[in-house]
Automatic annotation (TrEMBL), chain A:
Ranges in a coiled coil: none
Organism encoding this protein: Haplochromis burtoni
CDD domains: DD_TPGS1 (cd22960)
GO molecular function: microtubule binding
Identification of the protein by name: Tubulin polyglutamylase complex subunit 1
Automatic annotation (TrEMBL), chain B:
Ranges of Basic residues composition bias in the record: 288-299
Biased composition (Acidic residues): 303-316
Compartments, as annotated in UniProt: Cytoplasm, Cytoskeleton, Microtubule organizing center, Centrosome, Centriolar satellite
Protein name: Centriolar satellite-associated tubulin polyglutamylase complex regulator 1
UniProt xrefs under InterPro entries: CSTPP1 (IPR038968)
Length: 328, 316
């Protein structure tokens, strides 16, 4: 095992110049601190024991299971989850915070604007580590634009954590990873970046709306799909997609109107509001009669063939995603 | 010879099981990559990291933008790369554009920055069935030739050596049991060939080639195409040239399925400027004619419906 250990740690053989030696020392230290040796040894033993036909797949599953077991937080209850070795390290703490943040974000639907905003604020503070956790309880219904209590040391949520939050939101919202990937590409931040509150809120809200949108799209597909067959006629699907697209486009011009009428009590972030409104109007557009109109039109003409659920979902997702501003 | 993972064969020793799966290679690479970014990871993140690494290997997403040494290191990596190449550029297949060898190389380098030109050249030679590769190729022709070349690289190199030895009239390096027939055949090859240059588009006796390839497979450590596929091709003709043999292999659906990452050979449109050859093989009696830029021979389909044999005149 010794030489495997060496190989695994990427350590240079003895006799290398001093510069390299320092690197390999720190590498070794990192690996032993992170428990990599034991981790991999355990994995290999399990793998050889199982003799699966798909060893790589087996390892992938093994590590995924391990990761979810050690990450399993208990939502907002706040009890400490012990990691394998029995010590609660920074990483485990981070995961716990993430879980609690997600729990908060799930509490209110994004259409309940003020409640949702509060929850986003709480989640943000949880993830913005050196921030003012003590202030979490002090927020009530009010403008949450410029924060009256500015975080002491926390300069923002770590980019990786932010991206992870978005990923979880999408997958918990029932959006398959492949569908949400293009959206996340537009929203994500690099790990080394510190995400400010506005960006965090924008991302979270977009993902929440997107999840709803996709679920709606899935429901729509189920409507037009022939029961019994797995697919729907392409013409019908295109008609439905057209309606969705139209719905998304109509509310483009409504920003200015809304802002002029803005109630001071309501969240002052205009972009988020526009999205919420857009969604509501989109739902209205996809009313039964509008849909029936589109479908009637489609029956008589249009391309032949069928469209399956995945293709429909991807097309619907694309309509939404192209409207999302890229986070720079 | 790659042994298949087999649950029903509990006597596969642990070492061999580990070796065949290339797991240690992946673990090694995973740790090296981890160390390069160790500042980003804590103890918990490490488990997640390995989960993601192996998930991406399992899903064949792991080769994109990696260095050449990595992507060619295991059969799975090679197959994954071929698949990525196809997925990224299949639009070319649909649009029917013809590209040059260097253009394909550029495309490959977008996916793997240090992808060597030598490999692309070899693939192009198969696709074009000639040494001179300055003409344009369809995506389909290049893709399947590339698959064969990249996946079975080591094997093809050995076959070429054997082939050239046969052409030169030498007894091939691989040890074959000299039977009376093969001894007779080798001199006859040299008599016919001694006035010609030894170029891979000239032909050899297929049965001799089959024997040599069989012997090669017996001792060969790397992957090779299924023997039945190779025998099938070689049994169909009196004379076979290196490139026509390879191109037949490239377009064999059975081989495509063995590698298992690309769709059916016929599903990607290939440019069709002349009729297909019978049984997939080209009659070789001449030196290759100079290539035209746009025309290029329609490559064999194994399930051929046409029975017209291509003659030289129809080429031009």
């Amino acid at each position: 095992m010794a030489d495997k250990e060496k190989r695994r740690s990427g350590v240079n053989p003895p006799g290398m110049p001093a510069g390299k030696a320092t690197k390999s020392d720190s590498d070794r230290e990192f690996l032993s601190q992170a428990g990599v040796g034991d981790l991999l040894r355990g994995a290999i033993l399990k793998m050889v024991e199982a003799r699966s036909d798909d060893p790589i797949g087996f390892l992938a599953d093994h590590f995924c299971n391990l990761a979810s077991v050690t990450a399993a937080g208990s939502g907002g209850c706040g009890d400490e989850e012990q990691v394998n070795t029995g010590t609660v390290s920074a990483g485990a703490q981070e995961q716990q915070r993430l879980n609690r943040a997600l729990w908060h974000l799930r509490l209110a639907h994004h259409s309940q604007r003020s409640a949702f905003s509060n929850n986003v604020r709480v989640a943000y503070d949880l993830l913005n580590f050196t921030g003012p956790q003590t202030c979490a309880g002090e927020f009530s219904e009010g403008p949450d634009g410029p924060c009256t209590v500015s975080p002491a040391g926390g300069g923002g949520v770590r980019g990786g954590l932010y991206t992870q939050t978005l990923q979880c939101l999408c997958s918990e919202g029932g959006v398959p990873a492949s569908t949400s990937a293009p959206l996340l590409r537009r929203l994500h931040c690099h790990d080394h970046e510190a995400v400010p509150y506005d960006v965090f809120r924008h991302g979270v809200l977009t993902c929440a709306v997107f999840s709803d949108y996709i679920r709606q799209a899935q429901r729509l597909y189920a409507e037009v799909c022939c029961p019994g067959e797995g697919t729907a006629s392409r013409a019908l699907c295109l008609a439905v997609l057209g309606t969705l697209k139209e719905a998304l486009e109509t509310s483009q011009g409504s920003d200015t109107n809304y802002c002029a009428n803005a109630n001071t009590k309501v969240n002052s972030c205009p972009e988020a509001n526009v999205k919420a409104i857009r969604y509501l109007e989109a739902s209205a557009k996809i009313s039964p009669c509008k849909l029936a109109q589109a479908m009637a039109g489609a029956q008589t003409q249009g391309p032949g063939g069928n469209m399956d659920a995945k293709e429909f979902e991807n097309a619907a997702a694309e309509l939404f995603i192209t409207r999302v501003k890229v986070v720079s | 010879r790659k042994s298949r993972m087999n649950r029903l064969n509990p006597t596969v020793p642990a070492d061999q099981y580990l070796a065949d799966s290339n797991v240690l290679f992946y673990l090694n690479d995973a740790v090296i990559q981890l160390l390069e970014h160790k500042e980003e990871y804590n103890q918990f993140g490490v488990i997640r990291y390995f989960a993601e690494y192996f998930s991406s290997v399992k899903n064949s997403n792991h080769v994109l933008f990696r260095e050449f040494n990595y992507i060619q290191a295991t059969p799975h990596n090679r197959a994954s790369f071929i698949r990525v190449f196809w997925k990224c550029y299949r639009q070319i297949g649909k649009s029917g554009d013809l590209l040059s060898m260097l253009e394909y190389r550029s495309l490959l380098q977008l996916l793997c920055p240090d992808f060597p030109v030598v490999l692309v050249q070899s693939a192009a030679r198969i696709a074009v069935m000639d040494d001179t590769i300055d003409c344009l190729m369809s995506f389909s022709d290049f893709l399947y030739a590339f698959q064969l070349q990249f996946y079975y690289q080591e094997f093809l190199d050995c076959v070429l050596v054997i082939y050239q030895d046969l052409l030169a009239g030498k007894s091939p390096n691989t040890v074959i049991v000299p039977t009376s027939t093969s001894i007779e055949q080798i001199p006859s090859v040299s008599t016919e060939e001694n006035n010609k240059e030894e170029r891979p588009q000239d032909g050899v006796e297929p049965s001799t080639l089959v024997e040599c390839i069989d012997a090669l497979c017996d001792r060969f450590k790397h992957s090779h195409p299924p023997r039945s596929c190779m025998r099938e091709i070689l049994n169909q003709t009196d004379r076979i040239s290196y490139y026509s043999f390879l191109m037949s292999l490239a377009k064999q659906e059975a081989i495509n399925q063995t590698i298992g990452v690309l769709p059916n050979c016929t599903s990607i449109p290939s440019s069709n400027s002349s009729s297909s050859a019978v049984g997939g093989l080209k009659e070789v009696q001449k030196k290759a004619s100079p290539r035209r830029n746009i025309h290029h021979r329609r490559r064999m389909e194994v399930e051929s419906d046409g029975s017209t044999e291509e003659t030289d005149s129809s080429e031009n």
